[in-house]
Amino acid sequence: RLLETDSKSLRSVNGSRRNSGSSLVSSSSASSNLSHLEEDSWILWGRIVNEWEDVRKKKEKQVKELVRKGIPHHFRAIVWQLLCSAQSMPIKDQYSELLKMTSPCEKLIRRDIARTYPEHDFFKEKDSLGQEVLFNVMKAYSLVDREVGYCQGSAFIVGLLLMQMPEEEAFCVFVKLMQDYRLRELFKPSMAELGLCMYQFECMIQEHLPELYVHFQSQSFHTSMYASSWFLTIFLTTFPLPIATRIFDIFMSEGLEIVFRVGLAVLQMNQAELLQLDMEGMLQHFQKVIPHQFDSGPDKLIQASYQVKYNAKKMKK
């Protein structure tokens, strides 16, 4: 609400540009025009957040489309919590108690924390605040869910949440993601769900990119060699953060389907090169080339992933 009144007062200062007859393009320069666009998206998201229950019921499709365009940075924390219904969870009150307990996974968690976002300022220093809160959330979760405990890879997801919100909120969102977004199944010790995702994804390749499928088979290039981390970290270990975060926005809104879509889009875009390479060359291509293909921005990738034909019924079958 503050944001809204703020931008309303801004508007009266600028003279009502709505009535200037030139909609967004006023006589001012392109740069202030950009800030008008930003201002509009702020007002829009401010409204969505304020009237969430109503908007979610009545305008689900519009919200999905807006999320695909990217949630403005300052709204991410609250919108992610709203998308997965994590804002009023009773488990939040247990968080400080959990931190006083000891978890059998503590050694493992400590060992992995230094490897999580080693380049990121918030996490790179030993014993920094980032490493401390990451340890806390991972430890608390390992105590709440003894079967899964701690699983490598999940720290990347928690780390991303901590870049947006305080640790108690990040903990609640993570609990929700594990429960409602298939992540808990993916991280179970047997990893059977990951095997299922690999199988489903392979079937998609066979159907949509038969030539590439045959090439992968002839090179004994298994889907799990390149795609496991896509599913376990929702591309957070594949692409630079600005791109992975945009994919994560959509994941929060639509679930794992986006991982299948983006994965297939990436293969489509790289099919010609991959067909020329042997197994070693393909591994190099996935590690060195693909991560930087969308550095200029994720829009091209997201558009391509919505051209992918995804048949939910078939996937279920």
Automatic annotation (TrEMBL):
Residues 70-255 form the Rab-GAP TBC domain. Pfam families: RabGAP-TBC. One of its GO terms (molecular function) is GTPase activator activity. Gene3D superfamilies: putative rabgap domain of human tbc1 domain family member 14 like domains, Ypt/Rab-GAP domain of gyp1p, domain 1, Ypt/Rab-GAP domain of gyp1p, domain 3. Residues 10-29 have a biased composition (Low complexity). InterPro entries: Rab-GAP-TBC_dom (IPR000195), Rab-GAP_TBC_sf (IPR035969), Rab_GAP_TBC_domain (IPR050302). Keywords: Coiled coil, Phosphoprotein. Residues 1-29 are annotated as: Disordered. It comes from the Eukaryota. This is EVI5 protein. It comes from Balaeniceps rex (Shoebill).
